[in-house]
Amino acid sequence: MRWPQLPLRFLPVFVCLVAFGLRLGPLWANRFHSDEALYATWALNIASGRDVLLAGVAPDKPPLLFYTMAAAFLAVGRVEVAARLAGLMAGVVSVALVWAFRPDRSRPVRSDVAAAAMALSPFAISFSPTAFLDPLMVMFALASLAAATRKRPGWAGVFLGLAAATKVQSLIFLPLVVACGAFVFRLSSSVVIRFATGLAMPVGAVLAWDRLRGGAPFWIQQTLNYGGIRSVYASEVTPRLAGWASFLPHFFGWPMLAALAVGLPLLLIYDLTRGARTRAAALDLVLIAFALGYLVLHWLLAFPVWDRYMLGLVPVMCLLIGRLGGLAVGWLEARLYARSSVIAVMLVFALLAVSAAQASQSAIPFGGDHGPHDGMDRVAAFLRDLPTGAVVYDHWLGWVLRYYLWDANVYIAYFAAPQSLAEDLRVFGRASPRYIVFPADESTTRVERAIAAEGFAMSPVLSTQDRRGQPTFILYRIDAHADH
């Protein structure tokens, strides 16, 4: 029996369209996470011309995403979707780049199976339509891998440099790019020079930008913000391991996780016995070693235990799924019929379908905000209508409030403690309208007591709820007592 050619010819397009469709759901569902709001605010400063070089802030990341987002704001307008377009498209392009990974003519990795796993990964679906740095970084890292395996060392360097221009942590992919490139060409001075030149161009541009803007270098600022890079303390080892491990089931969902728990050990045994000393076995060991090294590095160095840091591991695991798929396809072709690619891809779809659908509906707690900032758009709409000179006091919302009120006529005043708020009201509180936004789970008691001592009281004017009907924010107006 011979499988029709038309479905196979359009299989890459079909998988990419599925990937795009699944990523549209979270695109509009969630308000900004705090970090998304910060990056979007920087991009607005660039797009508006207020601060094109970001000299007035202290960025702790390279600037490529911020300028990409600024271009999207200019093209689409100041909406959350514009800030997320780069991540959305990077997520879909990453599926195509996994398909393009070809380290060997014998194709030990089934690129169609690997791409299907990338398209339906709940983790990838959740992070793609966000304004985080990681989706764009992963796309460029995958482009570097694909270029290396297609004998393009110069482009491999350029793409890895663009990944580093998005997020410095992307340089963790350097050993994998070199190792995969070694499968297709011999290491020579010419290859090294072409790769290094390609890498130096975007990295050099970022360094030039950093010196033009002045201030502390962004990598120094990043080190300060993270408290420095150090080895973990003994008391941190177990909690950090549990934290990182808790993300792994959400890469592909439990059915695929169970399949990997069985398949990867069997693959490793095969590579060390019957398949030993083959190029396919060497590739398996490179991918497995990188995956383990990636986990160990994040575990034993004091990186924050943040879910988005694991996104870079997802495509590597997809390549290993593709390797297992290659063995499965070989077995099927030997026993059933000559074209078993569609069966293998459909099996991946079956294993990931439920988890992918949940991620597409923002039903897994990764990626965007998922509820805590629901209603912030309503709060911002109310505050935008206030007269010029109105003051909004803030203690909890920081970057989020500053994004949503970026071009509003109100002044956002941070207060560190209730007493400092009371002192500010005592001096300026009668000069203009005053408001304060409380997250619904924060008690108002201490603030009410402090401002009452200065003759002020709060009255609620707006309350919001999340998608589950739970309260999220309460906006209060602050007024002076009549007898003061």
Number of domains: 2
- Lateral strand order in the biggest sheet: 2-1-3-5-4
Number of strands: 5
Radius of gyration: 26 Å
- Summarize the helix and strand pattern as letters: HHHHHHHHHHHHHHHHHHEHEHEHEE
Major sheet size, sense and barrel closure: 5 strands, mixed
**Portion of residues within helices:** 55-70%
Structural class: alpha/beta
Number of helices: 21
Average pLDDT over all residues: 92
Produce the secondary structure layout.
Layout: H1 5-9, H2 11-29, H3 34-48, H4 64-76, H5 80-99, H6 111-120, H7 122-127, H8 134-149, H9 153-166, H10 174-181, H11 189-213, H12 218-226, H13 237-245, H14 254-272, H15 279-300, H16 314-335, H17 341-360, H18 376-384, E1 391-394, H19 398-404, E2 411-414, H20 418-428, E3 434-439, H21 445-452, E4 456-465, E5 471-480
Parallel strand pairs: 1-2, 1-3
Antiparallel strand pairs: 3-5, 4-5
